[in-house]
Amino acid sequence: MSGKTHLGRVARPLASSLVPLAVLMCLVSCWLGPAGLIRTIAKPDDGESCAADERTNPIVKDCVTRGSGAKRDRGLSAGQIIAQGAWAIPLPVDSYIVGAGFEDPDYGGGHSGVDFFAPRNTPISAASAGKVIAAGCAPSTERDAGSCDVNGSPAVKGCGWFVEILHADGIATMYCHLVRRPLVRTGYKVKMGQHIGDLGTSGNSSEAHLHFQVHTDGQTTDETAIDPIEFLQSAGLDI
Questions:
Q1: Which residue of 16, 42, 43, 191 is most buried, as measured by CB atoms within 10 A?
Q2: DSSP string of the chain?
Q3: CATH number, residue 215
């Protein structure tokens, strides 16, 4: 169509010049699809939608959306999953410095995540939509066994206050060294960018930072850990 209005052609009977309403509605429905022109993707199995809105949630750095044909496929590789999905860096933009990386040699190659250094009480958000599978306190010192409401140290074992989230396709994320009890509990459904806790230095920690891990196969073990920086970069995030 040219986009111009030709008033002289309206002289014909109106009914003969218009597409029947039922046909028109069918065409519109087929074009938009049942969910409308834009669908958010990377929904977890529970149906949570992408909650990214940079105007109201400064924690969210990026939310990837696609057109109406972009449904998630199951059984994809991790690279394909994050290329289609919606992921965010779990800290506010420009609030952090990247420290020790995945399998850092200074840790004997046993560092299963990445450290983001930021001021104490910096808000931590869920990197993607999912379901909380663990939240609580990993063992602190022997003197304060079971308590994470103390500053950690390199001599202390454990993650301190922590959260684990299971996302679609068996991807799991872990957030360690929170300053206090997490804002979420096991079984909670969370959206991408949702505030789950605040950064601190509980557990095996020498200063305030977030230790962030990404895992495959729905398990948070050393064997399933993958490089979080490469993962987020593959999702199109600038980090």
A1: 42
A2: ------GGGGGS-HHHHS--HHHHHHHHHHHH-TT-SEEE----TT-PPP---TTT-TT-----EEETT-PPPSS--HHHHHHHS----SS-TTS-EE-S-TT-GGGTT---SEEEE--TT-EEE-SSSEEEEEEEE----STTTT---S---TTS-S-SEEEEEE-GGG-EEEEEEESSS-S--TT-EE-TT-EEEEBB--SS-SSSEEEEEEESTT--SGGGEE-HHHHHHHTT---
A3: 2.70.70.10
The tally of domains found in the chain comes to 1
Catalytic entry in 177, 209, 211, 215: 209
- The verdict on whether 209 is a catalytic residue reads yes
75 belongs to a structural domain:
yes
pLDDT at 104: 58
pTM of the model as a whole:
0.63
Domain that holds residue 136: 70-234
